[in-house]
Amino acid sequence: MIFKNIINKYFSISIFIVTFFLISFVIYKSEIVWSGNQRENYFQFLYLILGLLLFGFLSLFFNQTLKIILTNTFVLLFFVTYILEICLIFENKFFIKSNNTNILKNNINIKASIYNKNTGLNYDFKNRFEAYTEFKIKYPDAVTQVGSQIINLEGGKKILSLSGVSNKKTFGCNENGYYSNYLSDRFGFNNPDYEWDSLSVDYAIIGDSFLDGTCVNRPHDISSVLRKITNKSILNLSYSGNGPLKYYATLKEYIDDRFRNILLFFFEGNDFDDLEKEINQEILSKYFLDENFIQNLKEEQSSIDEYGVRLVEQVYNERKKNLYKKKETKLNIENKNKFNFLEFIKLYKVRAKYNLFVFDNSRKNFEKILEKFQKLSHEYNAKIYVVYLPSYNRYLENKNFKSLKKVKQYSEKFNFTFINMDKLVFSKVSDPLKLFPFGMPGGHYNEMGYQKIAEAINNFLNINN
Fold first, then answer.
1. With pLDDT > 70 as the criterion, what percentage of the chain qualifies?
2. Rounded average pLDDT over 2-7
3. Span 338-358, mean pLDDT?
4. What CA–CA distance (Å, rounded) separates 173 from 135?
5. SS3 assignment, position 144
6. For residue 169, what are the CA distances in angstroms to 133, 178, 217, 293?
7. Largest CA distance in the chain
8. What's the half-sphere exposure (Cβ side, CA atoms, 13 Å) at 194?
9. Average model confidence (pLDDT) for the chain?
């Protein structure tokens, strides 16, 4: 009886309290956190707020029985929704992982057979930890890529790195039958260091792991191929894990008056997804909100090196102590399977699956980032080309990526030259999947794929310049 009386007395008040907190949340996020720059994202909450206000007003006239029924319904929906969120988390972490493991086991022998047939060499079956351990015998100071990291400096200052450890043998990955590596330059990118001494940078390359040269050795990455066939200065400012906002941040940090042309690469497989995550990162978002923001990362390379070396050694030593036992290893810094409590509370999986209050504003944000690129190009009198890279799924599933049309539209809006690699390379090949490692999913391009892309870019530039 007491419970029924509490519901009857506070039912309407509870609705108005929830509405008040929702209004406060929208104002805080829209006007304080984002300073009005993301206001359109929060318009969809207006319908919910108006609905709650109307429902709260009507509830003043509900009888006790109806209020109890509605309360029980809301509580049931609450628990069912979070149970569904848990199921989706477990599905992504275990079911998909299990399937991928089975696929890997079935494919590894096929890969080994193809690799041996094509090269006469034996496929490297070592896991990444074993291969890195062997690599360190030959190169004791070797490191792995550490990804973009927030680094605490003296005096409470924080910086966000956009590249890796400088002047080190950097151990890579195995998608093509061998483990790749490269000697990083003075700022931790995959370049011959002498490129920084060029009187003119003919082409600066900006992108993610596809441009970083992931899983292939020089001279088979795009930058190296372009460097060879053009005989021009090619400066690669790409790094694995970077997305569109990091592309802009990287260019802003490292550009100077020598830059003549910029090749900005967009990968349809995940660049919009990466941008959605980047836009909310503590330091990175400042590049988006404040055009004058800069970290002066060139001057902080020693701190980036010190942190990166320490981080790699820490992870490696922990692995040696079997803290990650029974795991098929990747010497990665970021644990992508780590449980995210905040995402759980916010019902991230449920909202994404059913498109409920999902801020897929990545396309609008990408347009704003391209506008920033345009201003930067005008400031340094550099020409920008946007190069569109297709994903494996486009050809495996005959999938039509809507991003192609949008990226082309935005590029042309800001007078950037648009280069479509699907049109110039992949659609001209009888079997586009042959341009991926062993024709199988889950990887980047193979050496032939990178070669053809670089040749197509060179041909395009020769014809259109």
1. 88
2. 76
3. 68
4. 12
5. strand
6. 13, 16, 12, 32
7. 86
8. 3
9. 87
Q: Which DSSP string corresponds to 301-348?
A: HHHHHHHHHHHHHHHHHHHHTTTTTTS-----SS-TTS--HHHHHTTH
The answer to whether the beta carbons of residues 108 and 96 sit under 8 Å apart is: no
User: Do the Cβ atoms of 377 and 255 come closer than 8 Å?
Assistant: no
Residue that has been written with the tokens 């929060």 in this structure = 42
* Pair of tokens at residue 186: 């003075």
- How far apart CA 21 and CA 17 sit, in angstroms, is 6
Q: Which residues contact 1 (CB under 8 A, 6 or more apart)?
A: none
| Two tokens, residue 332 | 């990665």
Token couple for 317: 């030593």
Which pLDDT tens digit goes with each residue over 170-211? 999 999 999 999 999 999 999 999 999 999 999 999 999 999
Residue 415: its pLDDT value, please? Answer: 95
Q: How far apart are CA 397 and CA 269, in angstroms?
A: 13
pLDDT tens string 238-281: 999 999 999 999 999 999 999 999 999 999 989 988 998 899 89
- Asked whether 407 and 79 are in contact (CB, 8 A), the reply is no
What region, left, alpha or beta, does residue 188 occupy, with left being phi > 0 and alpha being psi -120 to 50 degrees?
Answer: left
| Angstrom distances, CA of residue 302 to CA of 146, 160, 242, 272, 441 | 15, 13, 21, 32, 38
User: Amino acid letter at 31?
Assistant: E
DSSP β-bridge partners for residue 89: none
